[in-house]
Specification:
Chain A has 282 residues and is of the alpha/beta class. Chain A has a single domain (2-122, 199-277), classed as 3-Layer(aba) Sandwich (Rossmann fold), CATH 3.40.50. Chain A has helices at residues 9-18, 73-79, 110-116, 132-142, 148-161, 165-168, 181-194, 211-224, 237-243, 261-266, 271-277; strands spanning 33-44, 47-58, 62-66, 90-98, 101-102, 117-120, 199-203, 229-233, 246-251, 254-260. In chain A, the strands form two sheets. In chain A, strands 6-7-8-3-9-10 form a six-stranded mixed beta sheet, with helices on both faces. Chain A has a four-stranded antiparallel beta sheet with strand order 2-1-4-5, with helices on one face. Chain A is globular, with a radius of gyration of 19 Å. The chains are: A alpha/beta (282), B mainly alpha (285). At the A-B interface, helix 3, helix 4 and helix 7 of A face helix 7 and helix 8 of B.
């Protein structure tokens, strides 16, 4: 587990300053960056899904990625923890730095990347053969943690962070799939939190949930950003407005506009962004 | 016009009824042999299925009584030997087909497995006879187990592949996104989710080879006595039934009926067990 030791983003910035490569002080860009994506292009076979995207993701903040279906936002998200590599015949160009380290360096094992950059999916997917409790700690178990005391601690901590503990503390031995849809999604968040990642990627985490369950997840995202860097893909414009600090608008695989959410939603620089946000297309 | 329409409608109804009738008839034809076989076996064999049948060795010709305990145990030993070979290779091969490999190579492997599934079982007996029996100069339990195991491999391989492909991709992604390695994801998540289907495939393959006679003719050979040495010929239930059925003695015929009844009942029970097993709550597989 040595590789999992967190580097604080602040350190990385200092390192960069020492090297004399300080980022340009632009007020609109994230001050402390967890990810620095430079010139990222991704192909599925012949089809180009992402076209030269350069984007920084702020530390301990929520970055929302919006755009019409097929604009590459999910691909971009999945490229942040190398999940897109599971699709056959993918090719990637450009660099992705996580706290200054190249995620795509040949010496980096994708499994290590994914331990540091967790993911929550559109459709909640608790493992059907496992109980609520087993679901939460399975990541630790399969990564070699045997200490039962540590597992129990992490179980409660993760469920509390996912705002699920009070609802399931008496049902830890029931199947994970017996929970309600919203609870299942929070269970999946707890499962992702249990391996103590630095970043949580969320691919439309609320799109299968009712408004009440959605509100709970949104509240949770707001709580979690004090500890984690969060990147979320959403189709829901209001949601992006409510929960995110930064918003990136993708269209046809390209990053059209990126900036603080308040600016993107009130005073976008690009016509396309404005049209999309106001619902004129997309 | 109106009349014509009504007529048309009647004719359609008749055609529909005909089609349903033919389909129903075909279904009966499918079920009928099973029912007949089972009834016939009950009539002829039930009288000889008794405690002695399960506990005693075959009696000499002319001596009343005797049983087939050696053949029943022999069959179980052969199935165990076959399982040791067929289950790991079949399951791992199925995992490979479902999770690894390129599409082209996998389609070739899949085709070859299907061809192997269609090879007449006596062929396996001859193959093992040539490879093992001739070389080691003797029939043996090992040779019989090998022949049955070879039949099991492609059966288990294909069912394992199919049930593993049924596991939704979301579970694989969820595990991989936790930083779990590919292999651990397959073993602890995918195979665990598909475990009922995999076990079903194994049980059905065991039931299938448990009733095989032909591959044992030149391999296990059969034995009228106890045998605890696996390098020696061993008795098997279907083989004993075969030997007894073609003998000229009435009391051996009765024993053969009893053996066949026990065999069919065994296969029947395995299938029912599989049905109960697969009725469980995990709807994914």
């Amino acid at each position: 587990m040595e590789n999992l030791v967190m580097e604080t983003p602040e350190q990385t910035v200092l390192e960069r300053l020492e090297k004399g490569a300080a980022p340009p002080p632009e007020a609109e860009l994230p001050p402390v960056r967890t990810f620095e994506v430079k010139n990222m292009s991704i192909w599925y076979g012949e089809k180009r899904a992402i076209d030269k995207v350069t984007l920084d993701i702020a530390s301990k903040a929520v970055t929302a990625i919006i755009g019409p279906s097929g604009c590459g936002k999910s691909t971009f998200l999945r490229a942040l923890n190398r999940m897109h590599e599971l699709t056959p015949r993918t090719r990637m160009e450009g660099t992705v730095l996580l706290n200054g380290k190249d995620l795509y360096a040949s010496t980096i094992d994708p499994a290590i990347v994914r331990r540091r950059v967790g993911m929550v999916f559109q459709k909640s997917n608790p493992f059907p053969t496992m109980t609520v409790g087993e679901n939460v700690v399975i990541g630790l178990r399969l990564n070699g943690v045997r200490n039962q005391k540590l597992l129990n601690e992490r179980l409660e901590k993760s469920l509390r962070m996912a705002a699920l503990w009070d609802e399931v503390k008496d049902d830890l031995h029931k199947p994970g799939t017996s929970l309600s849809g919203g609870q299942q999604q929070r269970l999946c968040i707890a499962r992702a939190l249990a391996v103590e990642p630095e970043v949580i990627l969320m691919d439309e985490p609320c799109s299968a949930l009712d408004p009440i369950a959605t509100a709970k997840i949104e509240e949770l995202i707001y709580e979690l950003k004090s500890k984690y860097t969060i990147v979320t893909v959403t189709h829901n414009m209001q949601q992006a407005g409510r929960i995110s600090d930064y918003t990136a608008f993708f269209y046809l695989g390209r990053l059209i506009e990126f900036g603080p959410t308040t600016k993107i939603f009130t005073n976008p620089s690009e016509k396309q962004t404005e049209d999309y946000i106001t619902g004129r297309f997309g | 016009m109106h009349f014509e329409r009504a007529h048309n409608h009647t004719w359609r109804k008749i055609k529909s009824a005909l089609a349903v009738g033919i389909a129903f008839g075909s279904a009966i034809v499918v079920i009928l042999p099973l029912g007949l076989v089972f009834c016939y076996l009950l009539i002829n064999g039930a009288g000889s299925v008794n405690w002695d049948f399960f506990t005693k060795l075959p009696a000499p010709v002319g001596v009343v009584g005797g049983g087939m305990v050696n053949a029943i145990v022999g069959s179980l030993i052969l199935l165990a030997l076959a399982g040791v070979l067929g289950i790991p290779i079949g399951v791992l091969g199925g995992v490979y087909l479902a999770e690894y490999g390129s599409a082209r190579i996998n389609s070739v492997l899949r085709f070859l497995a299907d061809v192997l599934n269609g090879v007449p079982s006596i062929t396996w007996g001859v193959v093992v006879y040539g490879l093992i029996v001739l070389r080691f100069k003797g029939f043996s339990a090992y040779a019989g187990g090998l022949a049955l195991g070879l039949i099991m491999i492609p059966l288990i391989l294909r069912t394992t592949e199919e049930v593993i492909l049924l596991v939704p991709n979301g579970y694989r992604e969820a595990a991989l996104a936790l930083g779990v390695s590919r292999w651990k994801t397959i073993v602890h998540i995918v195979m665990k989710t598909a475990s009922k289907g995999i076990i079903t495939g194994i049980l059905l393959a065991l039931a299938r080879v448990g009733g095989e006679t032909a591959p044992l003719l030149f391999t296990a050979f059969g034995n009228r006595f106890w045998n605890h040495d696996l390098s020696q010929p061993i008795a098997a239930l279907p083989l004993q039934v075969f030997t007894y059925a073609i003998s000229p003695y009435d009391d051996w015929h009765r024993q053969a009926w009893a053996g066949a009844l026990v065999l069919v009942t065994g296969v029947f029970c395995v299938n029912i067990f599989v049905r109960i097993l697969t009725r469980g709550k995990t709807a994914s597989v």
